[in-house]
Structure formats: C-alpha cells, structure tokens
Specification:
By secondary structure, the chain is an alpha/beta fold. The protein has a single domain, classed as Aldolase class I (TIM Barrel, Alpha-Beta Barrel), CATH 3.20.20.70. Helix 5 runs parallel beside helix 6. It is globular. The structure holds S-adenosylmethionine (SAM) and FE2/S2 (inorganic) cluster (FES). FE2/S2 (inorganic) cluster binds next to helix 14.
Amino acid sequence: GIIQRIQKLEKEHALAIEDYEYLIENRTPETDDWIRHKAVQITRSIYGRDIYVRGLIEFTNICRNNCYYCGIRKDNPHVRRYRLSQEEILSSCKTGHALGFRTFVLQGGEDAYFTDDRLCAIVSEIHERYPDCAITLSVGERSAESYRRLYEAGAERYLLRHETADADHYRLLHPSTMSFAHRMDCIRTLRDIGYAVGIGMMIGAPYQTARHLAEDLKFIETFQPEMCGIGPFIPHGQTPLKDFPAGSVDLTCYLLALIRLICPDVLLPATTALGTMDPKGREKGVLSGANVVMPNLSPTEVRKDYQLYDNKICTGEESAQCRGCLERRMLSIGYQVVTDRGDKKNI
Ligand code: SAM
Ligand code: FES
C-alpha cells in the first residue's frame, strides 16, 4: 500500500516507476496529509522555518518558440511585446537588493536580441554591482558555448524545466520545431558546466497521465536537481490548449511533498501558478514541503504583458508590495522570509 511505499521512499529516496505511479493513483485525503506532514518535517530539519526569496525579473516576453500551453508563444498576436533594457534590469536589481533579495532570477522568452554578448554584459554588470547575490537565468535552450559564457560571466544557477520526462507527451505539448532530446541535452550540459540546475514540470498539463508524472519523479530521482519548479498547468485563452482544465492544487502539493521525500535538500518553490489557482496556494505549498518563494520584481508597467496563463496574480503590484505580501503570508503560517542567497544545503 501507500504506507509501505512511502516508508521505503523515506529510507531509500528511490522507488520503481510503478510505485510512483501507485502513489499518484491511490491517494486518499488521509495519506495526503500524512505525506505532506512528513515532507514538512524533513524540510524543517534541513532549512528550519526559513523561506528563501528570489526576485523574479521577467525581462522579455519575446519568444521564438510556440509551446502549445504558453501565453507568450510566438504566434499569439494579442501580446504586447516588450524587452527591458540593461538599465531597466539593473534598476530592478537595485530595488530588489534594497528589499533584501540576494538572488535575482532573469527569466524570459527565447529572444534573439539577447545574444551572448548582450546577456553576458548584463550578467557581469549585476555580478559586479551585487557580489553578494546569486544570479539565476531562465532563458530557455541555448548552445553549450552560450551556457558556458554566461556561467563565466557570473550566472551560477539555471532554471530549465524539462516540462515532461516522456518524449511522446513532450510532442503533444510542443510543435515539431522543438525536441525533447535537445531539451534534455541542454539540461545535462548545464549540469556539466557547473550550474545549480532547476528542472520541473506542470501538474495537470494536457494529456498528462499518472504514468507521465511517475516518469517525472523518476527523472527527478536520477538527475538530482538542485531546484525543482512545479506548478499547476493553467490554460491561457489565446493558446491551442485553452480548453483543457487547470491542474489541481492538491495534486501539486502532493507532488511537492513526494519530491521533498525523494530529494530532501532540494530547493522547492511554492510557485506563482500555485498562488494563482488558490489564494492560499503558496502557503499550502510551503505546508507541503516547499521552501522558496519567487516574488515578482519586474517593473509594474510590463507585468501584465508577461501572461503565461490566465489570471496570473501580482500583475498590478509593486515589487515592495509583493515582497511584503509574501513576508506576511509566510509569517501567518509560522515561517520567515530571510535575506540570504539561499543556496542549497547539502545533507
Ligand atoms: N523560455 C524559458 C523556458 O522555456 O524555459 C523560460 C520562460 S517559460 C515561460 C517558464 C515556464 O513557464 C515554463 O517552463 C512552463 O513550465 C511555465 N508555463 C508556461 N505556460 C504555462 C501555463 N499555461 N501554465 C503553467 N505554467 C506555464
Ligand atoms: Fe505579489 Fe502577493 S506576492 S501581491
């Protein structure tokens, strides 16, 4: 049953794919609570009640890709496209640093304007001005050479969700111009270069089965990422997958807990998508084993234009409001947001 499998997972941090599938298919409210409680205890034993914050700067919504689920896909003509200048990005970092952020996440579409020269210049400048901060990039698939140059410029972490560990499922979510093999190659290259790597997937993505999620967990178990970003799929009305239902908050929280059991010291964000699906979603995420939150640090003027999915929260707020909001939310459940780079602790 569930209990035996969880006990095995707690001890060995590994299970067969069939066992992961069993855990996903045979949940009950009681076992959910029990597993989330275990995950929270593990998190507390490693990270205490500290929650790490990352200042998320969505610096371009221009993208050459056409992922079927994503609101800023190239073929969505309704998006007002923008890219922040180096000055605007640095000014966001300045605001963020004053607010206590010690990690900046530069996220964007795959925008050809940001050549290696341009992006490296931005990364080095942030690195020079804020030597006490970690720089995380999340700009999709690039060449090994590009990843290497960005690493040398001072980026230490990279978020590149694998999206799904199943090649057939991958093809249902992406056009044939994108390849599962290439995405996996990129993830391995990032690891080889020395980045702290974040992978992850959407929960409840169109066509996703319990077997697919079990494969995702197996991939997480074998790859041992430093970070793992998971959040519910949320349909965007101007995408080909607009008619699929959103993923569930409960299942997302359950998977957060399982991931915590698989990788006890992994950095696990309670995502904005989780907060979008449920006003208490991020709190629920932390109470399932998440230990990171990523408040929006983008200039308020552009936030509405970085709409990956419908009804995204925080698009009207100022950076300081998001920071304060999350601090209060975390305090309300007995956790504190800390001013810290928030590196992974190795156990
Ligand atoms: N372009 C970079 C990349 O592909 O890795 C980074 C930006 S991309 C918009 C960041 C993540 O947003 C994706 O990895 C995907 O999992 C998530 N995302 C996109 N559309 C979504 C949706 N409709 N619901 C939930 N998450 C979504
Ligand atoms: Fe942005 Fe709450 S985190 S308003």
